[in-house]
Amino acid sequence: VFYMLCGCMGYAAFGDLAPGNLLTGFGFYNPFWLLDIANAAIVIHLVGAYQVYCQPLFAFIEKYANAKWPDREFITNDIEIPIPGLQEPYRLNFFRLVWRTAFVILTTVISMLLPFFNDVVGILGAFGFWPLTVYFPVEMYIAQKKIPKWSTKWICLQMLSMACLVISIAAAAGSVAGVILDLKVYKPFKTSY
Question: Where, by residue number, does the polypeptide cross the bilayer (predicted)?
Answer without folding.
Answer: 32-53, 97-117, 123-142, 154-181
